[in-house]
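Exercise 7.
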Amino acid sequence: MKIVFVFVFSAIAVVSGLEIEKPKNEYLLARNDAEPDWWQTAVFYQIYPRSFKDSDNDGIGDIRGIIDKLPHLYDMKVTAVWLSPIFTSPQVDQGYDISDYYSIDPDYGTLDDLRELVDKAHELDIKIVLDFVPNHTSDQHEWFQESVNNATGEFGDYYVWRDCEKDEDGIVTPPNNWLSHFGGSAWEYNEERDQCYLHQFAAAQPDLNFNNPDVVTAIELVLTYWLEFGIDGFRCDAVGYLFEDPEFRDEPLSNIPDVGEDEHDYLDHIYTADQPQTYDMIYQWRELLDSFTETNQSDTKVMMTETYTSIENTLLYYGLSNGTRKGAHFAFNFNFITKIAKGFNVEDLTACISEWLDNLPSIYTSNWVLGNHDVNRVATRFGTEYIDAFNMLTAFLPGVMVTYNGEEIGMENGEVTCEQGHDPRAINDCSTFNETSRDFARTPFHWDNTTNAGFNDGATPWLPVSEKYLDVNLADQDVRALSSHYNVYKELLQFRSTLSRMEDLDEVTMVSLSDNVIQIIRQNKAFHVSLVFNVGEDEEAVEFNHWEGDYVVAITTIDSSYSSGDFIENGTLFLNPYESIVIHNTVVSGGPSAIQVLSYLVLLCSGVTMSLF
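Solution. The predicted structure, written as tokens, is:
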């Protein structure tokens, strides 16, 4: 069985220097006239800079640390890197409270450092996307300071101010019942201006007033500045909260059980989230990005949006379903975060995937997100036994793949005490810190088994390094070529690159092969590829849906009884607990041979196309 691959790689050595004719038959696997844009099949890798790599040993990750680790990003073959905020900030919310949109926080470096990162990344064909926070600024921002000092001046209406009452005991009665995501009233009294301002997150993060056209213009100028700098796009944070009800009406109760009166979920946020004007604002930003791309004849400048909301609202951020208004290139699909939890089954998985695919208009590109800096890590949420399988799922499904740093090696949550924590929504109440803190997913990356996991040279990191770094680190997994999460991840990205070059594989079919085994199929006229996933704790023998002919194993989880290149001759799979494998056909009736198909797949991974007929 391994002889097939030896032959394939030998064949590549012979033909790699030749110009191979592009396919012209109707039964072709390669894309021709309808090549997807770069972002439509991209792997976006989120870096949390503060925790990635500390180059100057001050305990905080920085841009030069990211530059040092560009070889890792290139080794994975990610398409683009999304950087969590690096703008100047008091760091109340770790950079999501921006005090200057035009400068880099000294913790992370300088504009020159960012320029070097962009240039060197582009040399490696890696794009750089910035995390952009339009809903609010820091209360230290010049705009807010001017708004406080002069209510009738240029910046007086830059933020959402309302009259409120303060009695002789200093107790403030806010304008309405709106609640902050971080708990308590969303209104903060300012003594100097004698009014309350809106903050849907921390009190140090006042909401901008997008009903003011000057604010709209100011934000557009910021976007344009970074586009001209050479940034490849933006991840727009918390966009669902740009506008609020103009009448400032009280929001109704959510009636969710066991939720306290000060908690955000106590109310149904019909007046502070996903307002109609919000979508139009996103559409205007898309027009700005598209205009810049066209004027400068550059690669597409991409916009991705973040909001936790219903699927109906999420899809509106893409634009109108008839295509007359374009919004985000893609709005984050958080179904794997919000709809899958420990103890999930095949039905849960099927519903999670099908809800998204069944609702997404065909004119838009799908995307799959496993985790980020705001939620517990994948290995903690689902269990370490599912690390490879979920990376396999997001790599296999059509569209965009988003990876949070550390998912490629299966990092779990770190260990952080309330006293060590920094998350503003959690550190004020240590009794609930373990349940509410986001710090556990933000501990430093595990590069190796040296001091502080290779994050720095020994200075105390801003968050403690997880105790698990001795067992889970990149250096260890990189050398274990056949049995590590990292090498499975790299194989997935290579195979995914192959799939993205093939025609008519966007349709997804899901089949329950047993109570615990799901088969996900993508196929065209000549090629049939499936992901088969045993979600249960017992071994399973299943008959998978297949065409006539033999099938070959492409990728497996690290605990699999199969190896890449193994043939499956009778349509029966024997799966270990939690095992997931990718298989594809090797012979097509009236079409290419097994050797031709396998040669074709490997050649495609190298960017070469050839005719199979």
